[in-house]
Amino acid sequence: MGRVLALDLGEVRIGLAISDPLGITANPLEPLMCAGVRKDLERLVGLVREHGVVTVVVGLPLLLSGEEGQGATAARRFAARLRESLGDVDVELWDERLTTVQAERTLISANVKRRKRRQVVDGFAAVLILENYLDSRRTTGSGS
Fold it and tell me: Which domains, ranges and CATH numbers included, belong to the chain?
């Protein structure tokens, strides 16, 4: 299967999670502090090359109704630019509805202090996106 990198796009940080080479586990990486689209793309391309990533999954923040809002439009635009920058690496969009909320609730229930939650919630949301993606690939058999 190869490594998969998941992105939880934000205005301040980009949450990151990466799979093992077999696509079984999802682990958070240090989030990227946003520094402008061009610089963010350069750093992501470097991460993809460094880790031998074969697929990048970009969280698509749909509205609860399933419709696309401004966040989804921005994610699609970013994914298209990333696809152009990477060329030979598959870039997919993945429904991320409620992953940040779920990550926040999990961290609260684990008694993680507010300041620490802000530091780790993006990576944890990216882990949830990646786990959902990997689970889907296993159940549909498209990852074998």
Answer: 3-140 (3.30.420.140)
